[in-house]
Design goal:
Blueprint (H helix, E strand, L loop, with lengths): L11 H20 L3 H14 L3 E2 H6 L9 E6 L3 E6 L9 E7 L4 E12 L2 E9 L12 E8 L5 E6 L26 H4 L7 E4 L14 H14 L9 E7 L4 E3 L5 E4 L2 H15 L8 E7 L16 H12 L5 H9 L2 E4 L3 E2 L21 E4 L3 E2 L10 H13 L4 E3 L9 E2 L3 H5 L4 E6 L1 E2 L7 E4 H17 L1
Parallel strand pairs: 1-2, 4-13, 4-14, 14-20, 15-21, 16-18
Antiparallel strand pairs: 2-3, 3-13, 5-6, 5-10, 6-9, 7-8, 7-10, 11-12, 12-22, 16-20, 17-19
Helix pairs in contact: 1-11, 6-11, 7-8
Family: Belongs to the peptidase M18 family.
Cofactor: Zn(2+)
EC number: 3.4.11.-
Length: about 475
């Protein structure tokens, strides 16, 4: 069934609200290009909206009661926010879950080297990327360097107008005949994604250092600006991302072009919906924003960790009603929107989509009953009754929505965190924004879809 373009129903007030949200979303993208930066901004906005640290509240001996707004953070990369409702927690929660990691290039632990008077940083790509898309772009470096004395240095290069940018070279077209015969996956090899970081040699070096004079100059700059030594790369988390701010896209300014919209477009709209819950809800609302989805939701900050389960246990303990059974019931009786992006239909690549079951820009939030690959491998296939419930909620609140699957059968596929949450027995469905050029350095979304996602998440927290 074809869905109407959401723009056609907007009045002036709707468009004003949409533009306000789109501007706030672009600001969020500009402030958070790494998971740590995202969590820092999330905490800042949450505290401004009246949330307080769960651990700090419990340490003061204050119990948890209906109406309380609390958050908890794991390793500065995963965060859960709870707005405690009137019903006992064992009856379940209404959960919005998105991920805040995005495809990128990570700096290796022993990265810095010099070759023929040029200095480079060695990288290892993170998540699913088309490697050829990352060359000849202005790049920025974000992250932290942890030193042996316990101090942590924040690093950000390439975003300020006065900053230099970093760069990955490509072979000139005049000499690229053999390169252009390669498959797209092999045109740029992973080990060739090295970051050009300097070319000026340091003068007056002792003889044993002169062969690495450019490298030595880079180390001198890093030490002067950040107080770090070459050995400190061993305990650093430095990410290479596209330089530049999120921008409006199209002559009509109807879209947003930016890095990291998979999945920060769903993370931000989920957060915005959560922070606008002012009244004490009947059912506890939760916004869970996780790391590591792009590499399988692994590790201590991914959805496969016990972070969320432990957070629910702490919340129940603060209510003085903890038991293992209460935790199990709270999780089992919950309902979740796995807020992750969907592949937007692109007429330039129409052969990859089945038009009746594709997601279109401007037609609202997307429901993916299932994802996965081939025969739905790796998918959570939402039960029909739950899909009907979500449809009713969206219709009751005039939310524009559409349904889709991720491209044609056997063309590829992908997954989300939905199947992991479903292991608890809770109801889960994927629900997010359609994206063009997903996983590229610059992705495109529709402002209308961003707005409809925000409306959908607000409706879900209210009525799920």
């Amino acid at each position: 069934m074809e869905r109407r373009n959401a723009w056609l129903s907007y009045k002036e007030a709707d468009e004003n609200e949409m533009e306000k949200l789109a501007k706030a979303y672009r600001n969020f993208l500009n402030k958070g290009k790494t998971e740590r930066e995202c969590v820092t901004e999330i905490i800042k906005e949450a505290e401004a909206a009246g949330y307080e640290s769960l651990e700090a509240k419990l340490a003061k001996g204050n119990g948890i009661k209906a109406g309380d707004k609390v958050y908890t953070v794991g390793m500065k990369k995963i965060v859960a926010l709870f707005h405690v409702g009137e019903e006992e927690l064992s009856k379940g929660m209404s959960i919005l879950c998105a991920h805040i990691d995005s495809p990128r290039l990570d700096i290796k632990q022993n990265p810095l080297y010099e070759d023929t008077d040029l200095a480079y940083l060695d990288t290892h790509y993170y998540g699913g990327v088309k490697k050829y898309q990352w060359v000849t772009l202005p790049l920025a470096m974000h992250g932290v360097v942890a030193k042996k004395d316990g101090s942590v240095v924040e690093v950000s290069v390439g975003e300020d107008e006065e900053d230099p940018v970093l760069y990955i070279t490509d072979l000139l077209i005049h000499l690229a005949g053999k390169q252009l015969q390669k498959k797209a996956a092999e045109v740029i090899e992973g080990e060739s994604l090295d970051i050009l970081i300097g070319s000026r040699p340091l003068k007056d070096l002792p003889d044993d250092k002169k062969k690495d004079a450019v490298k030595q100059n880079v180390l001198k700059i890093l030490n002067e600006k950040y107080g770090i030594e070459e050995e400190d790369f061993l305990s650093a988390e430095l990410e290479i991302v596209p330089a530049g701010k999120a921008r409006e896209c199209g002559l009509d300014r109807s879209m947003i072009a930016a890095y990291g919209q998979d999945d920060r477009v769903c993370a931000y709209t989920s957060l915005a919906a959560m922070l606008e819950m002012n009244e004490t809800p009947k059912r506890t609302g939760c916004c869970l924003l996780v790391d590591k989805e792009e590499i399988g939701s692994v590790g201590a900050t991914g959805m496969q960790s016990r972070f969320f389960e432990n957070s629910v246990a702490e919340l129940l303990d603060g209510m003085d009603c903890y038991s293992e059974l209460a935790v199990r019931r709270a999780l089992r009786n919950s309902s979740m929107l796995s807020s992750d992006v969907s592949a937007g239909y692109d007429p330039a690549y129409s052969e990859a989509f089945e038009k009746k079951n594709a997601a279109y820009l401007g037609r609202g939030i997307v429901l993916n009953k299932f994802t996965g690959a081939r025969g739905k491998s790796g998918s959570n296939d939402a039960n029909a009754e739950y899909v009907a419930r979500v449809r009713r909620i969206f219709d009751d609140h005039d939310v524009a929505f559409q349904t889709a699957e991720l491209g044609k059968v056997d063309f590829g596929g992908g997954g989300t965190i939905a199947y992991i949450a479903a292991l608890y027995g809770m109801e889960v469905i994927d629900s997010g924004v359609a994206v063009l050029s997903m996983h590229s350095p610059w992705e495109v979304t529709s402002k209308a879809d961003v707005y409809e996602a925000y409306k959908a998440y607000k409706a879900f927290l209210l009525d799920a």
